[in-house]
Amino acid sequence: MSRPSASSEESYHVQHSPFGAFASFTCGLVDAPGGFGQSLRGPAKQNLYIGYRNGPAASWRLLPFLTPPKSQEGAFTGDTTVVQPPRGFDSLRPTDYTRTLGWASDTWRAEGGRFGFSLLSPFGEVPDPAKMKRAAARFHLAPLVTGWIEYDNRTGSSPVELVFGVGVGDDTLRPLGDTAPGLTGFAAGGRFGYATKPGRNVALKQGFDILNPKFLDHRGLHVIAGETGLVCTVPAGQRKRFPLVLGFYAAGPVSTGLTASFAYTRLFADLEDVLAHGLKEYRRYERLAAQRDRELARTKLSDDQKFLIAQATHSYLGSSELLWHKGKPLWVVNEGEYRMINTFDLTVDHLFFELQWQPWAVRDTLDLFVRRYSYRDQHGLSFTHDMGVNDFFTPPGRSSYECDNQHGCFSHMTMEQLLNWVLCACTYAAHTGDRTWLRANRKTLLACADSLRRRDHPDPAQRDGLLKQDSARVGEGAEITTYDSLDVSLGQARNNLYLSVKALGAWVLLERTFATLGLHPESAAARATADLLARTLTTKFEENTGFFPAVFEKNNCSRILPAVEGFVYPLFLGYRDATDAAGRFAPLFAQLERHLSQSLQRGICLDATSGGWKMSSTSTNTWFSKIAIAQHVVRSLFPAALNDSARAADRVHANWQRTPGCGKDAMCDQIRSDSGEACGSRYYPRGVTACLWLRE
Amino acid sequence: MSRPSASSEESYHVQHSPFGAFASFTCGLVDAPGGFGQSLRGPAKQNLYIGYRNGPAASWRLLPFLTPPKSQEGAFTGDTTVVQPPRGFDSLRPTDYTRTLGWASDTWRAEGGRFGFSLLSPFGEVPDPAKMKRAAARFHLAPLVTGWIEYDNRTGSSPVELVFGVGVGDDTLRPLGDTAPGLTGFAAGGRFGYATKPGRNVALKQGFDILNPKFLDHRGLHVIAGETGLVCTVPAGQRKRFPLVLGFYAAGPVSTGLTASFAYTRLFADLEDVLAHGLKEYRRYERLAAQRDRELARTKLSDDQKFLIAQATHSYLGSSELLWHKGKPLWVVNEGEYRMINTFDLTVDHLFFELQWQPWAVRDTLDLFVRRYSYRDQHGLSFTHDMGVNDFFTPPGRSSYECDNQHGCFSHMTMEQLLNWVLCACTYAAHTGDRTWLRANRKTLLACADSLRRRDHPDPAQRDGLLKQDSARVGEGAEITTYDSLDVSLGQARNNLYLSVKALGAWVLLERTFATLGLHPESAAARATADLLARTLTTKFEENTGFFPAVFEKNNCSRILPAVEGFVYPLFLGYRDATDAAGRFAPLFAQLERHLSQSLQRGICLDATSGGWKMSSTSTNTWFSKIAIAQHVVRSLFPAALNDSARAADRVHANWQRTPGCGKDAMCDQIRSDSGEACGSRYYPRGVTACLWLRE
Predict the structure, then answer these.
(1) Among A682, B220, B360, B594, which one has the highest count of C-beta atoms within 10 angstroms of its own C-beta?
(2) Domains of chain A
(3) Transmembrane stretches, by residue range (chains A, B) (predicted)?
(4) pLDDT tier at B4, thresholds 50, 70, 90
């Protein structure tokens, strides 16, 4: 649980998202709209009316989640002199309230804690959807988040009103009670909506200005208008909390290439079914969210670290999408604002989170990469960068991202994705013990090992372990890595330090995996390749500077933190021999510790201005998800390389996300290390690498 | 066919819309985006790339249908210094091209006519969907429009390239060939798309900048980017025209309250099916559009009048929506930017158009008003203002618009809608000869007559024919008319001149209808009421001023043109006795002619500044749809009231729609009579009343 804060600078959106619905109810940024977004690349733009007033004569006090909406009244009346509503409310300032972000909750308190509003994103272990019983599936896959709004009026002498409302501007909502008498709330067609339970203390509001309605129909609404709300009354002397359910529903096929619908559409008839289910199971969802909150709160991590884990998890869920294709689950994580489907260099980072909560997602994604998104070039097998974009599955063997004849962004990532399949597959199999799957993928693993070696050199005699053969797919260009938008220090794949250490991790895992499969000669060969590669790496160390160069070409002298990223896999799996500073890679470890010690200095890989961790000494573009991995590896394997400045940077990283530079797009990944402004990868799932810290 | 124009001021959007799909491909406004819009209240915001270049070295010359799009390249690369594409094109100015709007086509020509681009909205008589065979239904209900792009390069010495493209900015499109090899084009998911036939001369383009693509994948595209296009090559010495099909598809339930899907979803599996059908039936659609174009072109109307009819028809189709509910058609016309469902005071105006092209739509709408949207107040039967809003059908007996305790906009329209049912029903039955339907609605007609009389006065002895009893539904307010947003001259229903003459029309029709039903005493009674009402009206004429007051209360002295609107129904049905200036209503006709002659003067009901027709002398808010009816009635029944200024106003009305004040939202209805700026009712279907002129 992050600390309650009354900082006037704190201002950030959070995605409150169901599991697998590619949907978010986004809010939290100060003086900004948000609300229900389906399959969007950023926050929705709905005005949210959330607050309270001390009796009908008082002013409404609302959380600052709206911008003055353009009234549509004038469009009807032809009178453009109408003052823009809503009027008559005070917008709470950040100093007027506290906000507490938990792992599965986000809670605002004001009026000395008497007013409370919370949104819950309950998440937990999700069993394999292919095998889940209907009741369990309805619970785990319901496209909803829950919440509550409350007031403690026990010392009050007049009734207090609470409002929770949504204004959709150009669109309209409809009262849900017309189709579902058990629901009090509003919906946008059948697409999204919010509801509480019907009750004497709950009234519906709809109009051009729900705070000061001028036009009321027979039931006190005006359904042609876009602004809606629930007004709940708390009598004097009482404390009341009203449950909220926020639901989504996207019917019919939503993807092309592979034509598929949301898995939940098999379980829920429509939005009304979703919302009614949410109210019925409200307590169970609440308990699940509370359990997650407790787990995070009880760790020894700092408040900044807890905040980062909580914020990252929220955005991960917002990008998650569980489809149903030809009778089977089809798992997708969308790449945040880019919405690329199962980008493989994100899959390998989500791995650790997914193995804890839904390991079948890793397995299914690996299978789809083999079945549809693998290819062979002149060196052998590899995999595409992604499976498509924006719910469009690209043709077999082709990604949406990779272009030909490029030297930077948009080139191919053949080496990187080959490593990613190996690392995900071995980690999945070792972590879950899924021998059946492993045996079924024996041939693929062997082909990967062969392909890796040939990308070192086609002639076995000339191999040194380093990947340095570009795929023919690049044409006149060169292969890149996931760090495409950084400078050449991380962007170029060939002879790349980051990728070489990642390859080392892959060989270490292959050694174990082949042994598990009883392929002992192959296991020994993998071990030999790992040792060869490690030895080669030690020759690249610059004794004079105490650094590794980022690229073993052209006198590159960038310094990079992902030099140790490749160790996260053996570390995660507890492979002590490969992660012991005094073990088989001791010479390399000693060099890497020197490299890290010197890198984690202001002006090198700690930003001179902010103190935040930088992926590369020569780029101010740094990525939080990768910082999180680097922190985990450094703290776990190279603790001596840390210094006070490096340790203090969690606060810097948290403040980047807590302020509008990143916070206006919820969790962001690509950040300018000096200013803390996001420069790409907004609304992004990859930050869940921070969950690795829970293992420290 | 409106005249080809090279006016630099001409700039207007047109909705290119299928029948019944509530969808438009909107374009034409200068320097503005447009494109595919589904169920929108205004134009979409896509950039359109439509133009040509004389060989690969020349600059592209594009129609001015785009604003510089924000490139997403920077979001991927983190590099915000990238110049915003597209670059390297010349935006054609209105003086560089001609535009010709036909009844079912919209054609641009440039380069001395060598370049041509056209969009067709083929429409015609649509048989009753409840009875249409599948093949006919696929033809009539296909959610598509067609078009073509061409270049006459017969005198050229190098190949010319043509481009037709769409940029969706924040979203992405996908190449259609992946799922449908017979289609060359792009689609947004399964929702909309465009295609031509595959061919050697047609290439696909997709990227951040389709005119200058930097990043090309294995097939020369970049599917993560939002800008797409077809580039067609016309070799030197040839003239080539490339067919285009623009399609929509909205799967699953789209409405609530009455849960229904688009009728076409029963006939087409998906968007690909729609587009392939469009290419297959291309010639037939083209012939249908050409037939409509010819019909309008051959009339004796002026070019301005033809333009108004063409523009109005396009926007009517854009608001049309044919749903399928429980095995039956469910007809909807959406109210333009307000999207209210089957607003009854629009239905009564669409009547004349719909009786020509799809009379079943009138019948089905009347039936649904009886079945679900009728109610009884203290005086008897009436009908709601509308059936809901934005695909939400309101509960039985309730509209989305009407509120209680109001004196102006948003009050109830009980008298008006009662008259509208009578007028629509009698006109439908008389025009179509549908006796079965008429007999089935005998009781409703009798109840309407009874309700009308009681709204005059509950005591028969005190009746004078005028409607003056407000419904109890208004509460502390007062009933209004369809002219809600004008001043009291037309807004107040009680003792209203417009509504009284409309009631006269209703009684004239009831007299005939009851006779047809063999209800002779009722027919005689209707005749007597008509005569009573006509006599009463003559007593309201101000001999001293030569005018009728607009409201027979409170010394109102507004002068209104809708004084004669009620005569359009007997005029349409050819009821000579009621429309003969020397006939049974001769004294009233003489007074109305004086009223009109004096009204059609600058500063009264011709705007002092613009010369346009004004509904009321005391309001600058005037409505084109109602001007068109008034013009038709005046020209047909009161020709002596016309003068040169009044006759010349067609040019004024056309210029309003042809320039951005209205044109930025396609056909607009509520217009400031001085400035020609729309002040409401944008993107609006009601202007099809202008089709009455085709009868003159």
Answers:
(1) A682
(2) 14-292 (2.70.98), 334-695 (1.50.10.10)
(3) none
(4) very low
φ, ψ for residue B574 (rounded to 5)? Answer: 70, 30
Mean pLDDT of B162-180: 92
Chain B residues touching A408 at Cβ < 8 A: 77
CA distance B485 to chain A (A): 5
Per-residue pLDDT of B492-503, as tens digits, reads 899 999 999 999
Element at B318 (helix H, strand E): helix B303-319
Q: Which has the minimum average pLDDT: A52-61, A510-519, B38-47, B330-339?
A: A52-61
In terms of phi and psi (left: phi > 0; alpha: psi -120 to 50; beta: otherwise), the region of B88 is left
Structure tokens at B104: 């079912």
Nearest to B179 among A75, A77, A256 (CB): A256
pLDDT value at position B69?
58
Q: What is the 3-state secondary structure (H, E, C) of A263-322?
A: HHHHCCCCHHHHHHHHHHCHHHHHHHHHHHHHHHHCCCCCHHHHHHHHHHHHHHHHHEEE
Query: Nearest C-alpha of chain A: how many angstroms from B586?
Result: 37
B681 to chain A nearest CA, in Å?
7
Give the pLDDT of residue A70.
57
Q: With b meaning 16 or more CB within 10 Å and e meaning fewer, what string describes A550-559?
A: bbbeeebebb
Cross-chain residue pair B408–A179, CB shorter than 8 Å:
no
Which helix (H) or strand (E) segment holds residue A186: the answer is strand A184-188
pLDDT average, residue stretch A452-466: 96
Residue of A nearest to B402 (CA): A217
Of B78, B170, B251, the CB nearest to A485: B78
CB contact under 8 A, B189 and A391: yes
Chain A environment of B394 (Cβ under 8 Å): 178, 223
Query: A144 with A245: CB under 8 angstroms?
Result: yes
Q: Do B392 and A339 touch (CB under 8 A)?
A: no
Smallest CA–CA separation between B387 and chain A, in Å?
A: 11
Please report the ipTM that was assigned to this predicted complex. 0.93
Mean confidence (pLDDT) of chain B: 94
Query: Residue A77: its chain B contacts at CB < 8 A?
Result: 408-409, 484-485, 680
Residue A669: list chain B partners with CB under 8 A: none
Q: Give the residue carrying structure tokens 């380069």.
A: B111
Cβ of A77 and B408 within 8 Å? Answer: yes
Give the one of B74, B218, B680 whose C-beta lies nearest to A404's C-beta.
B218
| A111 conformational bin, left if phi > 0, alpha if psi -120 to 50, beta if neither | left
- Contact flag A223-B392 (C-beta cutoff 8 Å): yes
pLDDT surpassing 50 at residue B2: no
Q: Is the pLDDT of residue B15 over 60?
A: yes
Contact A400 B339 (CB under 8 A): no
Of B256, B265, B476, B679, which to mutate for an interface test with A (greatest number of A Cβ within 10 Å)? B256
pLDDT in tens, A119-154: 999 999 999 999 999 999 999 999 999 999 999 999
HSE of B285 in the Cβ direction (CA atoms, 13 Å)? 29
Strand B184-188, strand B192-196: pairing: antiparallel
Would you call A223 and B172 a contact, using CB atoms and an 8 Å cutoff? no
* A229 has pLDDT over 50: yes
The predicted structure's pLDDT at residue A557: 83
Strands B388-389 and B392-393: antiparallel
Q: Which residues of A touch B251 (CB under 8 A)?
A: 251-253
Query: Are A478 and A466 spatial neighbours (Cβ–Cβ below 8 Å)?
Result: no
Contact A680, A670 (CB under 8 A): yes
C-alpha to C-alpha distance for A296 and A291, rounded to whole angstroms: 9
pLDDT tens-digit readout, A98-116:
999 999 999 999 999 999 9
